[in-house]
Design brief:
Elements (H helix, E strand, L loop, with lengths): L2 H4 L8 H4 L40 E3 L13 E8 L4 E6 L12 H8 L8 E3 L22 E3 H9 L4 H10 L3 H14 L22 H12 L2 H7 L3 E5 L5 E5 L3 H4 L10 E9 L3 E10 L2 E10 L6 H16 L7 E2 L8 E2 L7 E2 L15 H33 L2
Antiparallel strand pairs: 1-3, 2-3, 2-10, 3-11, 4-5, 6-7, 8-9, 9-10, 12-13
Helix pairs in contact: 3-6, 3-7, 4-5
Length: about 400
């Protein structure tokens, strides 16, 4: 029941009602904090400065004076975001649905990794290695061999091994169940562009994600210590036959500096991918001078196989130069239910309401609310007087 309804009988004598000011619900009577300046980089609500901008076609950026120009890259879609605040600094076709390739393994890890302790030993069955797509990247998992779960995760993150994904998906409840869980996890993270058909990212009809969603997955992964450790591992030893081991190297060239690609300073990870349908895709993150950026690049159209790394490098360079000097054009939290914030766990955590700024009496509108509360008492008194008068008149008319 709103205040307007409560004091309807006294409307003719209530100045606040006549002015139309008392339309607040009881919950709104409490003092409300000042709305943050939408232009404040990284501030709460900053990315809401231009709601829906990232759904527009083309490159979206709102630089202030002196900010370097966004580099020209050939990728079909890309995003540069602040991993700490979630503010999207710039994006190009950010919500365009595209095949994700093995970058979808980020969502797979977010879904399954928390349930499987790294020290668990597992003997691989033939069924777990069935139906691996032809041409898949493999780390060399062998049926009948026993592996630690942590070894299998190294196979996923470093070698992008679809064989390791199949085994871990089996441990996580099975291929189809894992697909459904990944879809639910994407929705819980506010990644609404993603459609999961194959947990390993192998091309499948209808399987798509977006540069925006992949940035969401990368950012969420960095908040999980195990995910962050695996995705930043440069090399590891993987179990072979008869107790032997062999070395595996992370295929993210920005992390390793392999194949003539210069290593990027402060790079953290996260995951690269390639399929014939998706082209080269990359989710990467780097930290410099106390700032962490996450960048996604999907399917560069020029420059060969290593273009995905060089375009990511250019976007990272721009992001570190521009972070704090642009008005965000979106937020990686935009798809979350209102009043929640992302965490490493599966359930959003309720966001605490920000305190009212000191010295302003609760922010703009606080005087109106206070006046409304005071006016409510007057309205209630007027209503009570009218009701007493009405009952008196009715009592007089009821007499014989």
């Amino acid at each position: 029941m709103t205040i307007r309804f409560l004091c309807r009988a006294a409307r003719s004598s209530c100045v606040l009602c006549v002015a139309g000011l008392l339309t607040l619900t009881p919950a709104a009577v409490s003092a409300r904090p000042t709305r943050p300046d939408p232009g404040t980089p990284g501030g709460p609500g900053a990315a809401a400065a231009r709601p829906g901008l990232l759904f527009r076609s083309g490159t979206q950026v709102h630089p202030r004076a002196g900010v370097p120009k966004v580099p020209e890259v050939s990728a079909l879609a890309w995003v540069v975001a602040d991993a700490d605040t979630g503010a999207v600094l710039a994006g190009h076709e950010a919500h365009r649905p595209l095949p994700p390739a093995s970058t979808l393994k980020t969502l797979f890890a977010l879904t399954v990794l928390p349930d499987l302790p790294g020290g668990t030993l597992h003997r691989v069955s033939p069924e777990e290695l069935a139906d691996i797509g032809p041409g898949s990247s493999l780390v060399g998992v062998v049926e009948g061999q026993t592996y630690r779960v942590s070894d299998l995760w190294n196979g996923v993150f470093l070698n992008s091994g679809n064989d390791a994904v199949h085994v871990l998906a089996s441990l996580g409840g099975g291929w189809n169940a894992t697909t459904r869980r990944m879809q639910a996890r994407a929705r819980a993270l506010g990644a609404l562009d993603t459609q999961v058909r194959s947990p390993d990212g192998y091309d499948a009809p209808g399987q798509v994600s977006s540069a925006f969603d992949l940035a969401v997955f990368g950012r969420a992964g960095l908040r999980d210590p195990d995910f962050a450790r695996y995705c930043s591992t440069v090399d590891a030893m993987f179990p072979g036959l008869d107790g032997a081991t062999y070395g595996i190297l992370n295929t993210n060239r920005l992390l390793t500096g392999a194949d003539g690609v210069e290593r990027y300073p402060g790079l953290i990870g996260v995951k690269n991918g390639y399929t014939s349908d998706a082209g080269n895709t990359l989710v990467t993150a780097a930290r410099q001078d106390g700032r962490t950026l996450v960048v996604t690049v999907m399917n560069p159209q020029e420059g060969g196989a290593h273009a995905v790394y060089e375009e990511a490098r250019a976007l990272l360079d721009w992001g570190f130069a521009a972070d704090g000097r642009v008005v965000p054009v979106g937020s990686l939290d935009a798809g979350l239910p209102r009043g929640t914030r992302p965490g490493a766990g599966s359930s959003p955590v309720p966001a605490a309401a920000p305190p009212a700024p000191a010295g302003n009496g609760g922010g703009p509108g606080a005087g109106l609310v206070a006046g409304g509360v005071a006016g409510l008492g007057a309205c209630a008194a007027a209503l009570a007087l009218r009701l007493r008068s009405r009952r008196a008149r009715q009592a007089r008319h009821a007499r014989p």
